Protein backbone atom coordinates (compact mmCIF):
# COMPACT_ATOMS: atom_id res chain seq x y z
CA UNK A 1 0.00 0.00 0.00
CA UNK A 2 2.70 2.41 1.07
CA UNK A 3 4.82 1.17 -1.82
CA UNK A 4 2.12 2.07 -4.30
CA UNK A 5 1.88 5.56 -2.78
CA UNK A 6 5.65 5.98 -3.10
CA UNK A 7 5.63 4.99 -6.76
CA UNK A 8 2.60 7.14 -7.52
CA UNK A 9 4.26 10.17 -6.04
CA UNK A 10 7.36 9.69 -8.14
CA UNK A 11 5.28 9.36 -11.30
CA UNK A 12 3.54 12.64 -10.50
CA UNK A 13 6.92 14.35 -10.39
CA UNK A 14 7.70 12.84 -13.75
CA UNK A 15 4.53 14.24 -15.26
CA UNK A 16 5.15 17.73 -13.92
CA UNK A 17 8.64 17.62 -15.34
CA UNK A 18 7.22 16.98 -18.80
CA UNK A 19 4.80 19.88 -18.44
CA UNK A 20 7.47 22.36 -17.35
CA UNK A 21 10.58 21.18 -19.21
CA UNK A 22 12.59 24.31 -18.58
CA UNK A 23 12.39 24.00 -14.81
CA UNK A 24 12.79 20.29 -14.40
CA UNK A 25 16.27 19.73 -15.68
CA UNK A 26 17.89 22.94 -14.56
CA UNK A 27 20.25 22.27 -11.73
CA UNK A 28 20.99 25.79 -10.75
CA UNK A 29 19.42 29.19 -11.15
CA UNK A 30 21.73 31.62 -12.86
CA UNK A 31 21.39 35.05 -11.35
CA UNK A 32 22.31 38.39 -12.83
CA UNK A 33 24.43 40.31 -10.38
CA UNK A 34 22.49 43.56 -10.66
CA UNK A 35 19.16 42.44 -9.29
CA UNK A 36 18.70 41.34 -5.72
CA UNK A 37 17.87 37.69 -5.22
CA UNK A 38 15.41 36.58 -2.64
CA UNK A 39 16.45 33.65 -0.50
CA UNK A 40 14.58 31.98 2.31
CA UNK A 41 16.34 31.78 5.63
CA UNK A 42 15.38 29.38 8.42
CA UNK A 43 17.53 30.42 11.38
CA UNK A 44 16.37 27.37 13.33
CA UNK A 45 16.60 26.70 17.05
CA UNK A 46 19.22 26.93 19.74
CA UNK A 47 22.36 28.49 18.28
CA UNK A 48 20.56 28.86 14.94
CA UNK A 49 19.63 32.55 15.22
CA UNK A 50 23.17 33.54 16.31
CA UNK A 51 24.93 31.80 13.45
CA UNK A 52 22.29 33.01 10.99
CA UNK A 53 23.13 36.52 12.16
CA UNK A 54 26.80 35.81 11.34
CA UNK A 55 25.86 34.84 7.82
CA UNK A 56 23.80 37.99 7.38
CA UNK A 57 26.68 40.15 8.61
CA UNK A 58 29.25 38.51 6.35
CA UNK A 59 26.95 38.73 3.35
CA UNK A 60 26.26 42.41 3.85
CA UNK A 61 29.96 43.14 4.42
CA UNK A 62 30.73 41.36 1.14
CA UNK A 63 27.95 43.16 -0.66
CA UNK A 64 26.13 40.00 -1.70
CA UNK A 65 22.89 40.91 -3.54
CA UNK A 66 20.67 38.66 -1.47
CA UNK A 67 17.48 39.66 0.25
CA UNK A 68 16.60 37.32 3.08
CA UNK A 69 13.07 36.12 3.74
CA UNK A 70 13.13 34.79 7.26
CA UNK A 71 10.85 32.01 8.40
CA UNK A 72 10.61 30.35 11.72
CA UNK A 73 9.32 27.01 12.87
CA UNK A 74 5.93 27.52 14.43
CA UNK A 75 4.58 26.00 17.59
CA UNK A 76 1.32 24.86 16.03
CA UNK A 77 0.92 22.10 13.51
CA UNK A 78 -0.13 23.40 10.11
CA UNK A 79 -2.66 20.87 8.78
CA UNK A 80 -1.66 21.61 5.19
CA UNK A 81 1.84 20.36 5.82
CA UNK A 82 1.21 18.09 8.82
CA UNK A 83 4.15 19.81 10.42
CA UNK A 84 5.26 22.75 12.50
CA UNK A 85 6.58 24.31 9.30
CA UNK A 86 3.85 26.36 7.70
CA UNK A 87 2.71 26.18 4.12
CA UNK A 88 3.93 29.76 3.67
CA UNK A 89 7.45 28.81 4.70
CA UNK A 90 7.57 26.03 2.16
CA UNK A 91 6.01 28.18 -0.55
CA UNK A 92 8.69 30.76 0.13
CA UNK A 93 11.44 28.24 -0.67
CA UNK A 94 9.59 26.98 -3.72
CA UNK A 95 9.19 30.52 -4.98
CA UNK A 96 12.69 31.71 -4.28
CA UNK A 97 14.27 28.44 -5.37
CA UNK A 98 17.02 28.79 -2.82
CA UNK A 99 17.30 28.75 0.94
CA UNK A 100 19.57 28.41 3.94
CA UNK A 101 18.64 26.44 7.00
CA UNK A 102 20.05 26.41 10.48
CA UNK A 103 19.76 23.51 12.92
CA UNK A 104 16.21 22.57 13.81
CA UNK A 105 15.29 20.47 16.78
CA UNK A 106 12.15 18.50 16.06
CA UNK A 107 10.11 18.56 19.25
CA UNK A 108 9.05 15.18 20.52
CA UNK A 109 5.43 14.49 20.03
CA UNK A 110 2.90 12.93 17.79
CA UNK A 111 0.69 14.39 15.16
CA UNK A 112 3.36 15.97 13.05
CA UNK A 113 6.12 14.87 10.74
CA UNK A 114 9.73 15.56 11.51
CA UNK A 115 10.87 18.93 10.18
CA UNK A 116 13.61 17.49 7.99
CA UNK A 117 11.24 14.93 6.55
CA UNK A 118 8.69 17.65 5.79
CA UNK A 119 11.26 19.75 3.97
CA UNK A 120 12.55 16.79 2.03
CA UNK A 121 9.18 15.54 0.90
CA UNK A 122 7.50 18.85 0.21
CA UNK A 123 10.44 20.33 -1.68
CA UNK A 124 11.40 17.10 -3.42
CA UNK A 125 14.96 17.27 -2.15
CA UNK A 126 16.61 14.30 -3.78
CA UNK A 127 20.35 14.82 -3.42
CA UNK A 128 22.38 15.72 -0.35
CA UNK A 129 25.75 17.20 -1.25
CA UNK A 130 28.52 17.46 1.31
CA UNK A 131 31.95 18.72 0.34
CA UNK A 132 34.61 17.64 2.83
CA UNK A 133 38.02 19.24 2.63
CA UNK A 134 40.80 19.65 5.14
CA UNK A 135 40.69 23.16 6.52
CA UNK A 136 44.13 24.76 6.40
CA UNK A 137 45.25 25.55 9.90
CA UNK A 138 42.91 23.06 11.57
CA UNK A 139 44.78 19.80 11.68
CA UNK A 140 43.06 16.45 12.01
CA UNK A 141 44.50 12.95 11.67
CA UNK A 142 43.95 13.18 7.93
CA UNK A 143 45.52 15.66 5.54
CA UNK A 144 44.70 16.66 2.03
CA UNK A 145 41.08 15.54 2.16
CA UNK A 146 39.19 17.02 -0.76
CA UNK A 147 36.10 15.08 -1.66
CA UNK A 148 32.38 15.53 -2.13
CA UNK A 149 29.72 13.03 -1.05
CA UNK A 150 26.47 13.01 -2.97
CA UNK A 151 23.75 11.00 -1.33
CA UNK A 152 20.44 9.92 -2.80
CA UNK A 153 17.97 11.20 -0.25
CA UNK A 154 14.51 9.91 -1.14
CA UNK A 155 14.48 6.11 -1.22
CA UNK A 156 16.75 3.17 -0.68
CA UNK A 157 16.93 1.69 2.78
CA UNK A 158 15.09 4.68 4.24
CA UNK A 159 11.89 4.23 2.28
CA UNK A 160 10.10 3.83 5.58
CA UNK A 161 8.58 0.49 4.58
CA UNK A 162 8.92 -1.87 7.49
CA UNK A 163 6.54 -4.41 8.91
CA UNK A 164 6.45 -7.23 11.38
CA UNK A 165 5.97 -10.63 9.80
CA UNK A 166 5.45 -12.48 13.05
CA UNK A 167 6.67 -11.63 16.53
CA UNK A 168 10.45 -11.50 16.46
CA UNK A 169 10.72 -11.31 12.68
CA UNK A 170 10.73 -7.95 10.96
CA UNK A 171 11.10 -7.06 7.31
CA UNK A 172 12.45 -3.82 5.93
CA UNK A 173 12.09 -3.00 2.25
CA UNK A 174 14.89 -1.33 0.34
CA UNK A 175 13.51 0.39 -2.75
CA UNK A 176 15.75 1.47 -5.61
CA UNK A 177 14.11 3.03 -8.65
CA UNK A 178 15.56 3.82 -12.02
CA UNK A 179 14.15 7.32 -11.88
CA UNK A 180 15.69 8.28 -8.54
CA UNK A 181 19.03 6.65 -9.35
CA UNK A 182 19.30 8.37 -12.72
CA UNK A 183 18.34 11.66 -11.13
CA UNK A 184 21.03 11.57 -8.47
CA UNK A 185 23.64 10.23 -10.92
CA UNK A 186 22.84 13.07 -13.34
CA UNK A 187 23.31 15.55 -10.54
CA UNK A 188 26.59 13.97 -9.45
CA UNK A 189 28.13 14.15 -12.91
CA UNK A 190 26.75 17.62 -13.51
CA UNK A 191 28.24 18.75 -10.20
CA UNK A 192 31.58 17.14 -11.02
CA UNK A 193 31.74 18.88 -14.38
CA UNK A 194 30.56 22.25 -13.06
CA UNK A 195 33.11 22.18 -10.24
CA UNK A 196 36.10 20.90 -12.16
CA UNK A 197 36.22 17.51 -10.47
CA UNK A 198 37.88 14.62 -12.29
CA UNK A 199 36.36 11.44 -10.95
CA UNK A 200 33.02 10.10 -9.81
CA UNK A 201 32.93 6.93 -7.72
CA UNK A 202 29.68 5.03 -7.29
CA UNK A 203 29.58 3.31 -3.90
CA UNK A 204 27.60 0.09 -3.67
CA UNK A 205 27.26 -3.48 -2.46
CA UNK A 206 25.97 -4.90 -5.72
CA UNK A 207 27.92 -8.12 -5.26
CA UNK A 208 25.42 -8.98 -2.51
CA UNK A 209 22.40 -6.82 -3.32
CA UNK A 210 22.47 -7.53 -7.01
CA UNK A 211 19.13 -6.17 -8.03
CA UNK A 212 18.88 -3.03 -5.93
CA UNK A 213 22.46 -1.80 -5.94
CA UNK A 214 22.82 -3.38 -9.37
CA UNK A 215 20.12 -1.08 -10.72
CA UNK A 216 21.77 1.89 -9.06
CA UNK A 217 25.07 1.03 -10.75
CA UNK A 218 23.42 0.52 -14.11
CA UNK A 219 21.96 4.01 -13.93
CA UNK A 220 25.31 5.50 -12.93
CA UNK A 221 26.98 3.78 -15.88
CA UNK A 222 24.39 5.18 -18.27
CA UNK A 223 25.01 8.71 -17.08
CA UNK A 224 28.79 8.18 -17.05
CA UNK A 225 28.72 7.51 -20.78
CA UNK A 226 27.45 11.02 -21.37
CA UNK A 227 30.47 12.49 -19.56
CA UNK A 228 33.49 10.83 -21.18
CA UNK A 229 35.85 13.45 -19.76
CA UNK A 230 35.04 12.37 -16.21
CA UNK A 231 36.53 9.12 -14.90
CA UNK A 232 33.93 6.77 -13.48
CA UNK A 233 34.61 3.95 -11.06
CA UNK A 234 32.67 1.66 -8.78
CA UNK A 235 33.79 0.92 -5.25
CA UNK A 236 32.26 -1.57 -2.86
CA UNK A 237 31.08 0.12 0.33
CA UNK A 238 33.21 -1.79 2.81
CA UNK A 239 36.33 -1.31 0.74
CA UNK A 240 35.36 2.37 0.44
CA UNK A 241 35.25 2.75 4.24
CA UNK A 242 38.66 1.19 4.58
CA UNK A 243 40.15 3.34 1.82
CA UNK A 244 38.62 6.49 3.28
CA UNK A 245 40.31 5.99 6.62
CA UNK A 246 43.61 4.85 5.16
CA UNK A 247 43.92 7.35 2.34
CA UNK A 248 41.02 9.77 1.84
CA UNK A 249 42.91 11.61 -0.90
CA UNK A 250 42.02 8.70 -3.19
CA UNK A 251 38.48 10.03 -3.55
CA UNK A 252 36.98 12.90 -5.50
CA UNK A 253 33.20 12.76 -5.92
CA UNK A 254 31.25 9.90 -4.38
CA UNK A 255 27.68 9.10 -5.33
CA UNK A 256 25.63 6.56 -3.42
CA UNK A 257 22.23 5.38 -2.30
CA UNK A 258 20.62 6.60 0.89
CA UNK A 259 22.04 4.46 3.70
CA UNK A 260 25.62 4.34 2.48
CA UNK A 261 25.40 8.07 1.86
CA UNK A 262 24.20 8.71 5.37
CA UNK A 263 27.09 6.77 6.89
CA UNK A 264 29.82 7.86 4.49
CA UNK A 265 28.93 11.55 4.64
CA UNK A 266 29.20 11.50 8.43
CA UNK A 267 32.42 9.48 8.26
CA UNK A 268 33.90 12.07 5.90
CA UNK A 269 32.78 14.88 8.19
CA UNK A 270 34.68 13.08 10.94
CA UNK A 271 37.81 13.05 8.79
CA UNK A 272 37.98 16.83 8.58
CA UNK A 273 36.85 17.82 12.03
CA UNK A 274 33.20 17.04 12.53
CA UNK A 275 29.78 18.39 11.76
CA UNK A 276 30.58 21.82 13.15
CA UNK A 277 32.80 22.49 10.15
CA UNK A 278 30.95 20.69 7.39
CA UNK A 279 28.72 22.44 4.86
CA UNK A 280 25.82 20.72 3.17
CA UNK A 281 23.33 21.45 0.43
CA UNK A 282 20.13 19.67 -0.57
CA UNK A 283 19.09 19.74 -4.21
CA UNK A 284 15.45 19.49 -5.19
CA UNK A 285 13.42 19.16 -8.33
CA UNK A 286 13.33 22.22 -10.50
CA UNK A 287 16.74 23.39 -9.33
CA UNK A 288 15.79 24.16 -5.74
CA UNK A 289 18.73 24.28 -3.38
CA UNK A 290 18.45 24.32 0.38
CA UNK A 291 21.82 24.70 2.04
CA UNK A 292 21.97 23.69 5.65
CA UNK A 293 24.22 23.27 8.65
CA UNK A 294 23.94 19.64 9.69
CA UNK A 295 25.10 20.00 13.25
CA UNK A 296 22.69 20.14 16.14
CA UNK A 297 21.06 23.13 17.75
CA UNK A 298 23.32 22.93 20.85
CA UNK A 299 20.79 24.26 23.34
CA UNK A 300 23.42 24.27 26.08
CA UNK A 301 25.37 27.12 24.47
CA UNK A 302 22.45 28.91 22.85
CA UNK A 303 22.43 32.65 23.38
CA UNK A 304 25.93 32.68 24.88
CA UNK A 305 27.77 33.94 21.80
CA UNK A 306 29.94 30.82 21.79
CA UNK A 307 28.66 29.02 18.71
CA UNK A 308 30.87 28.30 15.71
CA UNK A 309 29.20 29.68 12.57
CA UNK A 310 31.64 27.97 10.17
CA UNK A 311 29.29 25.21 9.02
CA UNK A 312 26.46 27.61 8.23
CA UNK A 313 28.85 30.08 6.58
CA UNK A 314 30.35 27.38 4.36
CA UNK A 315 26.84 26.17 3.52
CA UNK A 316 25.87 29.70 2.50
CA UNK A 317 28.91 29.69 0.19
CA UNK A 318 27.49 26.53 -1.41
CA UNK A 319 24.22 28.39 -1.86
CA UNK A 320 26.04 31.24 -3.62
CA UNK A 321 27.80 28.83 -5.96
CA UNK A 322 24.44 27.27 -6.81
CA UNK A 323 23.25 30.76 -7.73
CA UNK A 324 26.39 31.12 -9.86
CA UNK A 325 27.55 34.08 -7.76
CA UNK A 326 31.01 32.56 -7.90
CA UNK A 327 33.00 35.73 -7.25
CA UNK A 328 31.21 36.44 -4.00
CA UNK A 329 31.35 32.76 -3.09
CA UNK A 330 35.12 32.65 -3.59
CA UNK A 331 35.59 35.88 -1.68
CA UNK A 332 33.68 34.70 1.36
CA UNK A 333 35.13 31.20 1.18
CA UNK A 334 38.68 32.52 1.17
CA UNK A 335 37.89 34.86 4.05
CA UNK A 336 36.63 31.95 6.14
CA UNK A 337 39.62 29.76 5.31
CA UNK A 338 42.07 32.58 6.06
CA UNK A 339 40.47 33.27 9.39
CA UNK A 340 40.67 29.62 10.44
CA UNK A 341 44.19 29.21 9.04
CA UNK A 342 45.42 32.29 10.86
CA UNK A 343 44.28 30.75 14.11
CA UNK A 344 43.89 33.99 16.02
CA UNK A 345 40.11 33.89 16.19
CA UNK A 346 38.82 30.44 16.94
CA UNK A 347 35.66 29.47 18.68
CA UNK A 348 35.66 27.23 21.70
CA UNK A 349 34.89 24.02 19.82
CA UNK A 350 38.07 24.46 17.77
CA UNK A 351 40.16 24.96 20.86
CA UNK A 352 40.12 28.74 20.90
CA UNK A 353 38.35 31.30 23.02
CA UNK A 354 36.74 33.68 20.57
CA UNK A 355 33.07 34.48 20.58
CA UNK A 356 30.75 34.09 17.61
CA UNK A 357 30.81 37.83 17.02
CA UNK A 358 34.62 38.01 17.18
CA UNK A 359 34.97 35.22 14.65
CA UNK A 360 32.38 36.80 12.37
CA UNK A 361 34.13 40.16 12.53
CA UNK A 362 37.44 38.48 11.69
CA UNK A 363 35.87 36.88 8.62
CA UNK A 364 34.45 40.25 7.54
CA UNK A 365 37.87 41.82 8.00
CA UNK A 366 39.44 39.15 5.81
CA UNK A 367 37.11 39.87 2.91
CA UNK B 1 14.81 1.77 10.45
CA UNK B 2 12.63 1.62 13.46
CA UNK B 3 11.24 -1.89 13.22
CA UNK B 4 14.22 -3.82 11.96
CA UNK B 5 17.02 -2.14 13.90
CA UNK B 6 14.54 -1.59 16.70
CA UNK B 7 14.13 -5.34 17.03
CA UNK B 8 17.90 -5.77 16.98
CA UNK B 9 18.29 -3.25 19.81
CA UNK B 10 15.50 -4.79 21.82
CA UNK B 11 17.23 -8.15 21.59
CA UNK B 12 20.55 -6.63 22.64
CA UNK B 13 18.93 -4.93 25.63
CA UNK B 14 17.35 -8.19 26.76
CA UNK B 15 20.69 -9.95 26.75
CA UNK B 16 22.40 -6.96 28.36
CA UNK B 17 20.18 -7.23 31.44
CA UNK B 18 21.63 -10.68 32.04
CA UNK B 19 25.15 -9.23 32.28
CA UNK B 20 24.95 -6.35 34.74
CA UNK B 21 28.72 -6.32 35.11
CA UNK B 22 29.19 -5.41 31.46
CA UNK B 23 28.53 -1.86 30.31
CA UNK B 24 26.06 -1.64 27.46
CA UNK B 25 25.36 1.33 25.23
CA UNK B 26 23.85 2.02 21.84
CA UNK B 27 25.25 4.20 19.09
CA UNK B 28 23.79 5.19 15.74
CA UNK B 29 25.93 3.80 12.93
CA UNK B 30 26.72 7.05 11.14
CA UNK B 31 27.74 8.69 14.40
CA UNK B 32 29.79 5.59 15.21
CA UNK B 33 31.77 5.90 11.98
CA UNK B 34 32.36 9.58 12.62
CA UNK B 35 33.58 8.90 16.17
CA UNK B 36 35.76 6.04 14.96
CA UNK B 37 37.64 8.23 12.53
CA UNK B 38 37.96 11.30 14.69
CA UNK B 39 38.49 9.73 18.12
CA UNK B 40 39.20 6.00 17.83
CA UNK B 41 40.74 6.01 21.31
CA UNK B 42 37.39 6.36 23.00
CA UNK B 43 36.67 2.81 21.88
CA UNK B 44 40.00 1.62 23.25
CA UNK B 45 40.10 -0.09 26.64
CA UNK B 46 43.56 -0.77 28.05
CA UNK B 47 43.36 -4.14 29.73
CA UNK B 48 40.27 -5.91 28.51
CA UNK B 49 38.51 -6.44 25.25
CA UNK B 50 35.35 -4.42 24.54
CA UNK B 51 32.87 -6.08 22.28
CA UNK B 52 30.91 -4.55 19.47
CA UNK B 53 27.78 -6.26 18.26
CA UNK B 54 26.26 -5.06 15.03
CA UNK B 55 23.79 -6.23 12.41
CA UNK B 56 25.32 -7.67 9.27
CA UNK B 57 25.77 -4.68 6.95
CA UNK B 58 26.79 -2.21 9.65
CA UNK B 59 29.19 -4.78 11.06
CA UNK B 60 30.79 -5.12 7.65
CA UNK B 61 31.22 -1.36 7.31
CA UNK B 62 32.39 -0.70 10.86
CA UNK B 63 34.84 -3.61 10.81
CA UNK B 64 36.41 -2.42 7.60
CA UNK B 65 36.58 1.15 8.86
CA UNK B 66 38.25 0.07 12.05
CA UNK B 67 40.59 -2.29 10.19
CA UNK B 68 41.62 0.60 8.00
CA UNK B 69 42.38 2.67 11.06
CA UNK B 70 44.31 -0.23 12.58
CA UNK B 71 46.52 -0.65 9.56
CA UNK B 72 44.69 -2.62 6.92
CA UNK B 73 43.58 -6.17 6.35
CA UNK B 74 46.98 -7.70 6.98
CA UNK B 75 46.75 -7.32 10.72
CA UNK B 76 43.06 -7.85 11.10
CA UNK B 77 41.94 -11.38 11.72
CA UNK B 78 38.30 -12.40 11.53
CA UNK B 79 35.68 -11.99 8.88
CA UNK B 80 32.07 -11.46 7.90
CA UNK B 81 29.36 -13.89 8.80
CA UNK B 82 28.90 -16.77 6.41
CA UNK B 83 25.46 -18.04 5.48
CA UNK B 84 25.48 -21.07 7.68
CA UNK B 85 26.82 -19.21 10.63
CA UNK B 86 24.33 -16.79 12.16
CA UNK B 87 26.55 -14.75 14.46
CA UNK B 88 29.78 -12.90 13.80
CA UNK B 89 31.59 -11.19 16.58
CA UNK B 90 34.56 -8.96 16.79
CA UNK B 91 37.10 -8.43 19.50
CA UNK B 92 39.40 -5.53 19.86
CA UNK B 93 42.76 -6.07 21.41
CA UNK B 94 45.05 -3.23 22.20
CA UNK B 95 48.57 -3.54 20.93
CA UNK B 96 50.41 -0.43 21.99
CA UNK B 97 53.37 -1.55 19.93
CA UNK B 98 51.62 -1.21 16.59
CA UNK B 99 51.71 2.21 14.99
CA UNK B 100 47.91 2.29 14.95
CA UNK B 101 45.73 2.34 18.05
CA UNK B 102 44.23 -1.12 17.99
CA UNK B 103 44.17 -4.52 16.40
CA UNK B 104 41.37 -6.78 15.33
CA UNK B 105 40.46 -10.38 15.77
CA UNK B 106 37.21 -11.94 14.82
CA UNK B 107 35.47 -15.25 14.68
CA UNK B 108 32.23 -16.63 13.36
CA UNK B 109 30.22 -18.62 15.86
CA UNK B 110 27.20 -20.80 15.25
CA UNK B 111 25.08 -23.28 17.14
CA UNK B 112 27.34 -26.25 16.51
CA UNK B 113 30.39 -24.87 14.69
CA UNK B 114 32.81 -21.99 14.69
CA UNK B 115 35.09 -20.75 11.97
CA UNK B 116 37.95 -18.36 12.53
CA UNK B 117 39.46 -16.48 9.66
CA UNK B 118 41.32 -13.46 8.45
CA UNK B 119 39.06 -10.45 8.43
CA UNK B 120 38.18 -7.81 5.87
CA UNK B 121 39.83 -9.33 2.87
CA UNK B 122 39.15 -6.28 0.72
CA UNK B 123 41.86 -6.04 -1.88
CA UNK B 124 43.98 -9.02 -0.90
CA UNK B 125 41.97 -11.99 -2.04
CA UNK B 126 43.41 -13.54 -5.17
CA UNK B 127 46.53 -11.41 -5.11
CA UNK B 128 48.85 -13.75 -7.00
CA UNK B 129 51.93 -11.59 -6.64
CA UNK B 130 51.83 -11.80 -2.85
CA UNK B 131 51.69 -15.58 -3.01
CA UNK B 132 54.55 -15.84 -5.52
CA UNK B 133 56.83 -13.52 -3.65
CA UNK B 134 55.88 -15.10 -0.34
CA UNK B 135 55.23 -11.70 1.17
CA UNK B 136 51.77 -12.22 2.63
CA UNK B 137 51.31 -11.10 6.21
CA UNK B 138 50.52 -14.08 8.46
CA UNK B 139 49.70 -12.02 11.55
CA UNK B 140 45.96 -11.92 11.00
CA UNK B 141 45.57 -15.65 10.54
CA UNK B 142 47.91 -16.37 13.47
CA UNK B 143 45.80 -14.21 15.75
CA UNK B 144 42.64 -15.85 14.42
CA UNK B 145 44.07 -19.24 15.29
CA UNK B 146 44.82 -17.94 18.79
CA UNK B 147 41.15 -17.02 18.99
CA UNK B 148 40.28 -20.55 17.92
CA UNK B 149 42.47 -21.93 20.68
CA UNK B 150 40.64 -19.78 23.20
CA UNK B 151 37.35 -21.05 21.86
CA UNK B 152 38.63 -24.60 22.36
CA UNK B 153 39.41 -23.68 25.98
CA UNK B 154 43.18 -23.62 25.60
CA UNK B 155 43.79 -20.13 27.03
CA UNK B 156 47.43 -20.69 27.89
CA UNK B 157 48.33 -21.78 24.35
CA UNK B 158 46.36 -18.83 23.01
CA UNK B 159 48.19 -16.44 25.33
CA UNK B 160 51.58 -17.82 24.36
CA UNK B 161 50.84 -17.45 20.67
CA UNK B 162 49.44 -13.94 21.00
CA UNK B 163 52.31 -12.78 23.18
CA UNK B 164 54.85 -14.12 20.71
CA UNK B 165 53.13 -12.36 17.80
CA UNK B 166 52.94 -9.10 19.73
CA UNK B 167 56.61 -9.30 20.66
CA UNK B 168 57.61 -9.80 17.04
CA UNK B 169 55.57 -6.80 15.94
CA UNK B 170 56.80 -4.65 18.80
CA UNK B 171 60.42 -5.47 18.03
CA UNK B 172 59.83 -4.36 14.48
CA UNK B 173 62.65 -6.36 12.87
CA UNK B 174 60.50 -8.82 10.98
CA UNK B 175 57.64 -7.07 9.22
CA UNK B 176 56.00 -7.85 5.91
CA UNK B 177 55.61 -5.26 3.16
CA UNK B 178 52.14 -4.10 4.20
CA UNK B 179 53.50 -3.09 7.59
CA UNK B 180 56.40 -1.21 6.09
CA UNK B 181 59.08 -3.91 6.23
CA UNK B 182 60.44 -6.37 3.69
CA UNK B 183 60.43 -9.73 5.43
CA UNK B 184 58.93 -12.80 3.87
CA UNK B 185 56.07 -14.75 5.37
CA UNK B 186 58.44 -17.50 6.52
CA UNK B 187 60.76 -15.04 8.26
CA UNK B 188 57.89 -13.61 10.27
CA UNK B 189 56.69 -17.08 11.23
CA UNK B 190 60.20 -18.15 12.26
CA UNK B 191 60.47 -15.04 14.38
CA UNK B 192 57.19 -15.85 16.11
CA UNK B 193 58.35 -19.41 16.82
CA UNK B 194 61.60 -18.08 18.22
CA UNK B 195 59.71 -15.79 20.57
CA UNK B 196 57.44 -18.53 21.90
CA UNK B 197 58.15 -19.40 25.51
UniProtKB/TrEMBL annotation, chain A:
Superkingdom: Eukaryota
InterPro entries xrefs: IsoCit/isopropylmalate_DH_CS, Isocitrate_DH_NAD, IsoPropMal-DH-like_dom
Entry annotated with the keyword Iron-sulfur: no
Cited NCBIfam families: mito_nad_idh (TIGR00175)
Annotated ranges, domain Isopropylmalate dehydrogenase-like: 36-363
Assigned protein family: Belongs to the isocitrate and isopropylmalate dehydrogenases family.
Cofactor(s) this protein requires: Mn(2+); Mg(2+)
GO cellular component: mitochondrion
The protein's name in its UniProt record: Isocitrate dehydrogenase [NAD] catalytic subunit 5, mitochondrial
GO biological process: one example: tricarboxylic acid cycle
Lineage, uppermost ranks: Eukaryota, Viridiplantae, Streptophyta, Embryophyta, Tracheophyta
Record key words, sorted: Magnesium, Metal-binding, NAD, Oxidoreductase, Transit peptide
A GO MF label: isocitrate dehydrogenase (NAD+) activity
Amino acid sequence: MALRRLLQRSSINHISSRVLPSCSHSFSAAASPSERIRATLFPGDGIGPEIAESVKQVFSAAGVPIEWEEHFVGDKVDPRTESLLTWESLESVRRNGVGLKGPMATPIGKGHRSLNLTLRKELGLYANVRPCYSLPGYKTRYDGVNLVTIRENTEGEYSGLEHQVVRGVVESLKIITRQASLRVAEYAFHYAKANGRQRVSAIHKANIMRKTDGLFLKCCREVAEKYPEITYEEVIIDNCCMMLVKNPTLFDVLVMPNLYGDIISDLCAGLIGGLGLTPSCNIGEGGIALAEAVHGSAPDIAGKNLANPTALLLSSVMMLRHLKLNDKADQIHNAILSTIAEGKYRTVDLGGSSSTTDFTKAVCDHL
Amino acid sequence: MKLADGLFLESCREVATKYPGIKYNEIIVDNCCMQLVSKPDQFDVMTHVPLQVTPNLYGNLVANTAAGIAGGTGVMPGGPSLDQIPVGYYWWITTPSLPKPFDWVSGNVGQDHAIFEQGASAGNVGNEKLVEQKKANPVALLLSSAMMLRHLQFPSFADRLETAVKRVIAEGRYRTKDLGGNSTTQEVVDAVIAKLD
